[in-house]
Amino acid sequence: MGERGAGSRLTVLLAFLANLGIAVAKIVAAAVTGSASMAAEAAHSVADTFNEVLLMVGLRRSGRPADRRHPFGYGKERYIWTLLVAVMIFGMGALFAFYQGVQTLLGHGAEEEADPLAAYAVLAVAFALEAVSWSQAVRQVRAAAREDGLSWRRYVRATDEPTSVSVLLEDSAALVGVLLAASGIALHHLTGSPVWDGVGSVLIGVVLTAVALSLGRLNLNLLIGQQADPRLIGFVRAHLAAAPEVEWVVDLLTMTVGAGRVLVCARLDFHDDLASADIERACVRLAEELRRGRAEIDEVFLEPVPRDDPDLRRQVIARYGLSLDSPGPDAPA
Questions:
Q1: Taking the first listed entry, what is the main subcellular location of this protein, grouped into a coarse class (predicted)?
Q2: pLDDT tens track for 72-111
Q3: What is the domain partition of the chain in residue ranges?
Q4: Which one of 52, 100, 110, 228 is most buried, by most CB atoms within 10 A?
Q5: Beta-carbon neighbour count of residue 23 at 10 Å?
Q6: Cβ contact 252:236 at 8 Å
Q7: Rg of the chain, C-alpha, whole Å
């Protein structure tokens, strides 16, 4: 978690510095040219600058150790701050882009742009700076994906560490937004019609909305309580089932409680000839073996239960649609 956390901080810091400079330049260019697309991009960069601050706050606060009021730590706080980033992207970026675009399409925008060359110069510099930040985010995501043994696309969809993914999506949207803004300004300049500028602004709003929805969905699942990676679940189930004291893994629950931190709860049917002291020792040993086997496993709770308990059977069937004689939905094939 240390190296990955340091990489996330570097990614966010580079994105903050790039977006701060870009935002100032775009604001000046928007004021000079009167371009709706440029104004939308300026709002986008301002939102992204604030977003990097939110991500840094989330990284810092989520790393606090567990205490009495929060016995599982503060790992999920990172998801709150990243969810706020999604709200900011939509609220400050997408809605303003839609507003600027619609105003222009309705004929309230400037008919003639002043000095579009200034806009082109700013967009070129913005594209270069965004590309630097985007490259760092790509390196961070790909390194994390390789570490987890996943393709980078699958990692983006399944990760429990949304910070670098947030920067990657923001910077990807920024690069697309720069191209859309440049196209809108160029078509306005060539045709003399501000409609193209308005269309560019609306399309920027569409891109930002898509990014906001993607980030919102990712963090919403993590906040609700997403299960661990199926490979980790398979490891836990196989390890518990192989224990000589265990007759059957009755139920297995996992939940992501932070970046790289997983809570494991298992109900086990132990052999009937074991004494209570033997079961206690087995629970302690198995919990320690699981933590040693996978560094992500943070807390382990093992509960001895009878396999044929009717209430427990109903709970498992209601959750998975399976009987207790089945290996479970996450058992390895």
A1: membrane
A2: 888 888 888 888 888 888 888 888 889 888 888 887 655 4
A3: 2-224, 230-320
A4: 100
A5: 21
A6: yes
A7: 26
Structure token pair of residue 19: 């977006």
CB atoms within 10 A of CB 275: 8
* Helical spans, DSSP H, in the chain: 2-33, 36-62, 77-88, 95-105, 116-148, 152-158, 162-191, 195-224, 230-242, 276-293, 310-320
In terms of Cα–Cα distance, which of 257, 285, 302 is closest to 71? Answer: 257
191-217 per-position pLDDT tens digit: 888 888 889 889 999 999 999 998 888
Task: State the Cα–Cα distance between residues 100 and 249, nearest whole angstrom.
Answer: 59
Domain 2-224 -> CATH class: mainly alpha
**3-state SS class at 307:** coil
Copy the structure tokens of residue 64: 């606090």
Longest dimension (CA), the chain: 88
Q: Specify the DSSP class assigned to residue 270.
A: E
CA dist., res. 301 & res. 66, Å (int) = 17
Residue entry with tokens 């000095």: 115
Domain 230-320 is found in CATH 3.40.50.2300: no
